[in-house]
Amino acid sequence: MATAWRNAVPVGVAVVGALVIGAGVDTVHRHPWSHKKAATAAKPTATTKHSEKPRFVVGVRRDGDAIVVRDVRTGHDVGLPVAAPAGRRFQRIAAGPGDSYVVASYASRKVVFHRLTLGKDGRPSALADIPRAAVPGVSTPSSDMAVTPDGANIAYVTYRSGGAGSVDVISTRTGARKTWTAKSAARISSLSWAGDTLSFLWSPQPRAGAHGELVAAAAPQVRTLDTAGPVGDLKLSKAILKLPAGAQAAVLSPDGRTIVAGLESSSRVALQQYSTETGRPGRVLWEQPGKSGVRRLDADSSGGHLLLSGDDGRLYGPDERTPVNAGDLSDVAW
């Protein structure tokens, strides 16, 4: 099985320019999540209703020069590509409210954000800058982003030399920014929101031992951060769940009661529910035999529909099975 670091990167992102998506995308059936009373730690701002299954995948081209929209039923592009601003490259994309998306672009140690809206036919509008919203720092292929369902806040991960990361939360209305910084090297991935609570997967990296030997990394943890609380050290976040070996991605449900983890082994890939209150495993929502692997797991803006990016270069989503070519995309959302 490949290392956690490699598998955690989004489908198609190249690590030293090496990874490429396969030629097709298969889609499979998933189960929407339950929306019972929220856990107190999650503090949701409103009840989220499940939307219809997304019709379109919106993706960043591998070289970051454009955004493209594709119909998941036909595999065809919809409208014209949306070009990146001059001198910048797109890096990340995340679903926003309604038919909108937030896109991050990067240049000269600065991340800025843009809004893209789709028409009813999926055709993209012109890119609109989000005023005053920016994050200083180094954005890498390992960076991650998530947007609150109401579009009010963006969470973004940057990294420093040595692999230690920072989590910034930016208001899309005012540009106000809060920062939490880690002191040790770890992959910070699978960002997702439940109210003011930001969930992420903390995956420590292997370290050198006393005699120069490589010491295996600790098991990945799902941690939550109260973004309405004090800023500073990322240790202010709370570990809520240790995931088993083979866990490569995890998403918090909108009510804060459930984590869905993408698990892989030598014989299967599965989406497994866990309780955030007890840490106990619940239902297996979906599984597939084989070695397709897990690179990323994302939800749409309703939180009710999951998109799994596999090591096999395919995207697994709703139950239509029309092949979609995603080989030129480095990050996707729906």
From TrEMBL:
Q: Where is the composition biased (Basic and acidic residues)?
A: 311-322
User: Region Disordered: which residues?
Assistant: 32-51, 308-334
Low complexity composition bias: which ranges?
39-48
Under which name does UniProt file this protein? Answer: Uncharacterized protein
* Naturally occurring in which organism (per UniProt): Actinomadura gamaensis
